[in-house]
Backbone:
């Protein structure tokens, strides 16, 4: 099985980095248990997220949800500069009310199968003025620094969601070699907790079994079964974090056999499900 690792860590509500790489870097497919916002500044980068491919332009904003499998393909002949914000999904939920939801831009991203927002020039001033303030707040010491970072970050998220809702940013249509990939992924994610076989997917998506497997591997870089397993493991991890008992998390995430779940979870996360529960309790 290909190993799509969970990378990165988050020990606070959000973290911000301004990075420039000039050396060759090869990234494997991976995912995080936090949401990620990337503001692309310069370089030559093709980003692959959940079967969708995007050729980035300066000031594109990428929305990578937690558990989204992704990787960048980077041309190392030119510097790759970007600003990255890692944020806890629970942080955004804490600010949801009947009249607003700061995760709306992520929800719209999933609905449209588009992970990249392209900003019109008239909108850039508002968003990037706030972004510049956020970067300064997070990288300079001062009175109530953590609180100030949080306040400015909330302003950035408000500006981003306003631009999204008012259609002042463009959600880029994904570029894929075959649009059926998105239909296949939709089917898998909608039936993740059910019995899924190659035949059931092939029948639902009107494609032959043989062509389905080769198409999925060729377009996404990973096998059909690896993708399903990764998604189920990510769901199980989220359930465990929410306090769901281990056995219940196993079956609610689509695994039919506990021993299979146990081995897969420990191999991928390097801890057993029960150890993950203990670690949660020690946080």
Residues:
């Amino acid at each position: 099985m290909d190993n799509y690792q969970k990378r990165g860590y988050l020990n606070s509500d959000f973290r911000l980095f301004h990075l420039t790489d000039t050396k060759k870097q090869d990234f494997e497919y991976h995912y995080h248990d936090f949401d990620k916002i990337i503001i692309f500044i310069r370089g030559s980068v093709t980003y692959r997220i959940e079967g969708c491919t995007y050729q980035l332009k300066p000031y594109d904003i990428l929305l990578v949800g937690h558990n989204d499998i992704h990787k960048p393909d980077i041309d190392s002949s030119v510097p790759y500069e970007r600003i990255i914000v890692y944020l806890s999904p629970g942080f955004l939920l804490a600010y949801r009310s009947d009249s607003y939801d700061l995760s709306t831009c992520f929800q719209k991203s999933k609905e449209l199968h588009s992970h990249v927002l392209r900003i019109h020039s008239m909108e850039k001033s508002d968003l990037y003025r706030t972004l510049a303030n956020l970067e300064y707040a997070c990288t300079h010491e001062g009175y109530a620094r953590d609180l100030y970072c949080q306040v400015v970050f909330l302003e950035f998220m408000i500006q981003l969601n306003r631009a999204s809702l008012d259609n002042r940013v463009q959600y880029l249509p994904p570029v894929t070699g075959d649009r059926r990939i998105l239909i296949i992924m939709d089917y898998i994610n909608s039936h993740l907790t059910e019995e899924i076989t190659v035949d059931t997917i092939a029948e639902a998506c009107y494609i032959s079994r043989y062509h389905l497997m080769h198409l999925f591997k060729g377009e996404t870089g990973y096998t059909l079964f690896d993708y399903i397993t990764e998604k189920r493991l990510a769901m199980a991890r989220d359930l465990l974090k929410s306090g769901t008992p281990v056995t219940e998390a196993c079956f609610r995430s689509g695994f039919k056999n506990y021993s299979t779940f146990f081995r897969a979870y420990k191999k991928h996360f390097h801890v057993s499900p029960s150890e993950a529960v203990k670690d949660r309790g020690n946080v």
